[in-house]
Amino acid sequence: MNTLLPNGSIKVSPGVTTTYTATATDPRGAKLTQQVVVSVAQAPIPQHPIKHIIFMLQENRTFDNYFGVLGAYRASKVPGATAKDIDGFDPTVALKTKTGKLVKPYHYKTVCMEGLNFAWNENNTDMDLQAPDTFLDSHCSNAKSLIDKFPQTINLSTTDPGGTRQMGHYDQTDLPYYY
User: What's the rounded Cα separation, in Å, for the pair 99 and 58?
Assistant: First the structure.
């Protein structure tokens, strides 16, 4: 006599803890009943939950002025972090200033710095919007914005006759509370 054990499965996705009952009947009519409880529990809490979200709103500085080297600093302090984890500047790229001088990013020698130009016209020149869209196109959806003209729109002054101050940045020694 060939007796096969029952087999098979059913997939369930209960939203709450549920008891399921399975009943099998053999060829002679004998029944076997088995119950199983599928427990639904709250999802586990992540091992490293987000503890803080910090918004910093400030005027008259760019991200690079304050945080351009934060990625490199973080990479030196946090295992597994890289300088590219935070979108800072590329320290090897020189940009042309209003006077034609090429300047790479540099560390400010003082925390007392003359303000930059944040006028609307200059900011739209700074964008350096590339084809195929132009500034007048809807949402500039296909455009690439190089954001590389800002050194050419800085107001020259007696304290910065070369127009280089916009290429400077602070670091953790200047702004320890940011780092």
Answer: 29
Q: What is the dihedral of CA 139, 96, 104, 63, to 10 degrees?
A: -30
Cβ atoms of residues 163 and 169 within 8 Å: no
DSSP string of 16-48, one letter each residue? S-EEEEEEEE-TTS-EEEEEEEE---PPPPPSS
Band (pLDDT 50/70/90 cuts) for residue 2 is: low
Residue 102 corresponds to which tokens in the numbers above? 């090429």
Give the residue-averaged pLDDT of 55-68.
75
Residue 140 or 95, more confident: 95
Alpha helices in 6-140 (DSSP H): 63-67, 70-77, 120-127
Beta bridge partners of 24: 32
Calculated CA dihedral for residues 64, 65, 67, 68, nearest 10 degrees? 50
Q: What is the 3-state secondary structure (H, E, C) of 137-156?
A: CHHHCCCEECCCCHHHCCCC
